[in-house]
Amino acid sequence: MSSTSPAERTLVLIKPDAVRRGLIGEITGRFERKGLHIEAMVLRAMDAQLADQHYAEHVERDFYPPLKDFMTGGPLVAMVLSGDTAVEIVRAMIGATDGRKATAGTIRGDLSMSNRENLVHASDSAASAAREIALWFPELG
After folding, report:
1. Quick check: pTM over 0.90?
2. In angstroms, rounded to a whole number, what is the distance separating the alpha carbons of residues 31 and 9?
3. What whole-number distance in Å separates Cα of residue 18 and Cα of residue 10?
């Protein structure tokens, strides 16, 4: 890494819709070409308990049951990316939540036509990243 800043970590989930569409390589390639480092990556399922923990702040919201069904409905890729201001960079790269409104050049802007099936999740802050990484990759402590 050429930066003098310490590497920041963030969690990215390549959601079941992206896995189903064969976009794992496309999405991970974009992060790698940007200069982010993949510290950990696994293809796995999200069970109901992990969904409730991961989305704890949304469990009581009306949109949560269909989100939970979607996220637990197929395999996904969980990964930890690191780099200088990784949280901010990854959030900019993925684009607006609604793929129909996301800017061209972003992952969602180029590859998604949905609000819920929007290909990727990324931590929204360093604190969220720490909490989410501990859920998905407890061995990285």
Report:
1. yes
2. 13
3. 19
- pLDDT at position 47, please? 97
Whole-angstrom distance, CA of residue 38 vs CA of residue 93: 15
Distance CA 62, CA 67 (A): 10
pLDDT tens digits, residue range 17-73? 999 999 999 999 999 999 999 999 999 999 999 999 999 999 999 999 999 999 999
What are the residue numbers of the active site?
A: 121
- Count structural domains, the chain: 1
Element (H, E) at 129: helix 126-136
> How far apart, in whole angstroms, are the C-alpha atoms of residue 5 and residue 88?
14
Determine, yes or no, domain membership for 112. yes
Query: The CATH number of the domain where 92 resides is what?
Result: 3.30.70.141
